[in-house]
Amino acid sequence: MSAPSSVEQASAAATTPASRSWTLRLRQSIERHLPMDHLLPDRQPYYVGSWVYVFGVITIAALAWVIVSGVVLSFMGPQWWHDSRVGRFFNSLHFWSVQLFFIFMVLHLWGQYFMAGWRHGRAATWMIGVVIFGVSVLPAFTGYLSQQNFDAQFIALNAKDAMNGAGAGAFFDVLNFGQMYGLHVMLLPIGVTFLVVVHLVMVRTRGVVKPIDAEGGTRS
Amino acid sequence: MRSMGATQEEYYRGVRMVPYDLVKEIVLAIVGVGVLALLISVVLSSPDVPQVTIATWAQQNPPQTSSLAPQPALHTDLPTTRWEPARAGVRSRLRSGLESASRSIRPTPL
Q1: Cβ separation of B83 and A42 shorter than 8 Å?
Q2: pLDDT tens track for A108-119
Q3: A134 vs chain B: nearest CA distance in angstroms?
């Protein structure tokens, strides 16, 4: 066996301290848990060809339209969707994208529930999906509060009692348009999008669960 | 966990794999859902109740707007058709309480 070359010695010397590098460890962890062929696979199990798996991707598509129309509305300001025909059209597009988002999300949730999508170590993926459904109600709610009309005031005044009863009225003031609008256009969309990204990464990391009683599939 | 497959390769062992274009799927989904949302928006529009502004209020009731500062909260003859049935009870209680409390408030001369 020949002695290590100078290049190999230099390489070893360079990698030893690097093993303590947070950056290197993060990169290695990402490469280990989420390689690119898992993140963007070109082959999937045959059962993924079922239509029930479409509900997940069309939910994301609806979310994309919610965000695009919402960015336009927030850029043009909180009177535009009442004052102009184009604004009213974008308001409609935003509204119906949200309705589609919730319809598709509920269908995806039902599909995964009856397929027991939490099996085989995927409980966290399922639970984050349920959390996304719950959290998504908040931007929908603050959206209704941001309409600046009597509908918004009616909802806000009735919700105020519930918020006070729940002890949340002091820091979640539904009568405060600025606070509700800020939450609606900034924090809540970021929160929902972040959770969706985590959900997607978990699906891609673990792969799609086998159907019950499929090849090698089990009920537990 | 081991029986479930430590890796995707182990988990999918024995399962028939087929070609799948993930990027094409999401692009088609975005286009399809966008067309659907556009069609629904064009056909159904959206529930758009006009916003309440000082201008619309002043046009509907100029004397009230210009006479008393606390008056709107007490004598709400604003365009409140949707609001009226559900909140009538609350408003009447509010009115009686606030009216007695506001007797000491003087009108603002203009």
Answers
A1: no
A2: 999 999 988 898
A3: 22
